[in-house]
Amino acid sequence: MKKLPTFYYLDHMMEFLRCIQTHHSQLLTAEHQQWLEDYFALPHDAQCVVARAANRKHELIAVTSLHYDEIVSPEEHINELTDAGWFRQVNGSDLNSVWPQLTKPELVKTLKLLPQCTVKTTANKAALVDYVSRHVSFNTAARTGTFNAYLMRNFSHTMRYFLFIYFGSLRGQLNQFSMRDMGIMRTRKDSEQQGCRFESGRAAQSAFTYAQWREQLRAAPQQVSLDDLPEAAGTLAERYKDDCLWLLGKAMLTQDPPYALKALSLSKADAAQEKWLRELYKQDNKAFVESELENIIADPPSEELLAFAEDFLARKYHKKTTSRMTDMLRGAARTLSIDQMYINRVEVGVVNFYERHGLIAKRTENALWLSFFGLIFWDILYEQDAKGLVNEFDIRPSVLTENRLYRDHSLAVEERLTQLHSVSSTMTFLLKASAAHYGKVNSLFRWHRSLLDNIKLLVEHSSPTMWQHMLRQMTQDYASLRDGYPDIMVIENGQLRFEEIKAPGDQLRRNQLISLTKLENAGYRVQITTVQWVRDPMQPYAVVDIETTGGRAAAHRITEVGIVKRVNGETVSTWQSLVNPQRQIPKNITALTGISNAMVANAPLFSEVAGAIDEFTKGCIFVAHNVQFDYGFIKQEFARLEQFYRRPKLCTVREMRRTHPGLRSYSLANLTAHFGIQMTRHHRALSDAEAAAELLSLAHDAEHKSE
User: Fold this and answer.
1) Which residue, 5, 4, 86, is CA-closest to 47?
2) 315 vs 306, 319, 323, 623, CA distance in Å?
3) Which of 489, 486, 470 is nearest to 478 (CA)?
4) Which architecture does CATH list for 541-706?
5) What's the pTM value of the predicted model, to 2 decimals?
6) Cα–Cα distances in Å, from 516 out to 149, 298, 527, 634?
7) How far is it, in rounded angstroms, from Cα 271 to Cα 282?
8) pLDDT (tens digit, 9 = 90+) per residue, 354-411?
9) Which residues have C-beta within 8 Å of that of residue 282, sequence separation ≥ 6?
10) What's the rounded Cα separation, in Å, for the pair 568 and 113?
11) Which of 507, 448, 389 is nearest to 642 (CA)?
12) How is the chain split into domains, by residue range?
């Protein structure tokens, strides 16, 4: 982690405010401009004090917390800043927000002033805060002198507005500059863009107003006059206003249904419109609801709302008894029997099943289409859309969050799609885009070396009209098509299909229905595949044993690996190798295993056998005696190579305890002796792996007999 310079907090404050002054001046009022001038006119140390205070999350500031070695005479500057109005004393209107910020001893000190106190001072802080907020007045609290140690930041609203117009949301904080410099937060450092995200001060103030109201509604919904709401100026303000009306309507449904319904009707948010129509239907306004549903279907505002309208109309008005999602799930094309070891990783189990049967199967989910989409339209999203990204912290283009990609850039989109007229032209474009932008921060996908592999399979096994159609749909309604894609892509006999995998109890979600339907409309074969859990005798098991230089994976290294692959209770192949640990083997380890430094001197490094281990155990369940030990070491060795290794795990210690309870010991040596399992050399990897494989068979046989 990088070490930051002494005055980094001031440097960040200056960087931020200079940007506000330079690139956002048209959004500032005369009061804002004066604030900036006043700040820049402050002495250096006073600027440091204000910068430190600006970085605090809460308006309440402990005076001593502003004392820093690099600030000369902090008390003097704090007093001068207070006199100038940068800080103020705590007053009665602050109490509700101040109580939670005080320490527990400070709360107890306040409670001792009450003639009668029914809460115990040993209660937790939340209980104390609740009690003082209901029973203690400001005058009573002030008598303790506690507030003398605090000041209130008197410029929070101004700073909050500056942060809002810079970051585009109320979540923006000054500490993001520090996290950037320390390498904790990645930004688009490759971008030199500096702009303004709002067209006018009116649009900025409108969005800021509705963003604050949305925050208040989430905390404590309160009714307001719906007829007097200010006009939402700009796309962001409109979206925030719709969110506010949705939150308000939802919260007030039980308290004031007519008011709630009006709020929902005024919101253009999909969730609000759906809730409004559902509630009207409950109130027997069926004719009106039917008309509204038909209007949505005739001119759908979004795929989400269209899916709701079609399904609701079919079930409530056309006497259909099940939803379309239920129909798709019940009509699953096939049911696969998958080994129960994959119960928490069902997609991996299905992929491994298909690969054992000679098919190409890849986990794709959202990553396939989002990376395809992102690479094809990268320049439009991150370079051409002037309103989309205004500083290095912006990684999610507003052209997507505001769902206006096709609306604003239809000509560029169509021109781009015409370039994707063949497999070769499409792959050439993708290769160039990937090479030009590899590693750049974005909100759509993660870069990795095999990013194009699945896209290439998709392109090679479908036609240009199919992927052009799907990409166009994503540009037209990204909000509805940013997720919900099928779990896996399968290629069988040269034919590509997508499969959504559902384990017992899983439901099909609406966003999945939308994406599946769009893929079908584009010409892709799509199916639902359900899974039933079994003990699959043909499931391969890789029984592993390792020898090491010591007991901790983070500190020690592997000296030998032995693997036995078992299918249907029989050993089908084995793999073993000594490994050069690149360090001395302790004498006690050599005495235990028989593996000496001389034996491993010319052995391969783990990096040289990693590929073989990965391939040999691919599609297998990783089995070991005390599996966390062996698996932890293998996983750590791959991590040192910056590679990810993951397999389903099974422990023969646990399995033997479960199927053969009551034995004196479950160590490998004692179990092999108890069951008469022959071992050629204890504490050598392949010998121990073969013994553990026999224990696995014993556990499976016992389990089978008990069924």
Assistant:
1) 86
2) 14, 5, 7, 50
3) 470
4) 2-Layer Sandwich (3.30)
5) 0.84
6) 61, 21, 8, 38
7) 17
8) 999 999 999 999 999 999 999 999 999 988 876 668 888 988 888 998 899 999 999 9
9) none
10) 77
11) 448
12) 8-182, 201-327, 334-534, 541-706
